[in-house]
Amino acid sequence: MTAGLIVLIVLIVLVVAIAVAIAVLWLRRRYLVVTVDGESMTPAYQPGERVLVQRAAPGSLLAGQVVVLSGRPDSETGVGARWIIKRVAALPGDAIPRDTVPALRTAPGTRVPAGHLVVLGDNPDRSHDSRHTGYLTTDRLRGVVLRKIG
């Protein structure tokens, strides 16, 4: 093998490695894989299932979509925030769903305020969601569930 051929092969390998690294970074900025923890979304999503999540802006959401949001750190244990999976019940500008969300029965106004969401688990007996906490802020949005994996 000539020195020129070796240099060419090294350059090709280097270009391929850089292209793969760029593709991985791009994918990580657009998609997440999240493992379902808990029973709040049963029967649609079971504990231990993995879901593909596309990062999304709040303005792209639709009512009924399943989303991943950042949780709050546990105040008792100090454990960091876990991500939560819930279904969007109401978006900014939608009517406040007072009949299904007890925490919002006395909320001022008639519409969900800008920068806020109403999210619910599919299994109300096992879900800590807007029924208990009221609005969640849109800055907690991590993305929209696209599908189950595996």
Please explain how this structure is put together.
The chain is α+β, with helices and mostly antiparallel strands and 150 residues long. Helix content is 21%, strand content 26%. The protein is built from two helices and seven strands. The protein has a seven-stranded antiparallel β-sheet with strand order 1-2-7-3-4-5-6. The longest helix is centred in the N-terminal third of the chain and has 28 residues.
Largest sheet properties: 7 strands, antiparallel
What structural category do the secondary elements indicate? alpha+beta
Overall shape: it is elongated
Total strands: 7
Task: Give the CA-CA distance, first to last residue.
Answer: 45 Å
Instruction: State mean pLDDT (0 to 100 scale).
Output: 92
Strand order, largest beta sheet: 1-2-7-3-4-5-6
Order of helices and strands: HEEEEEHEE
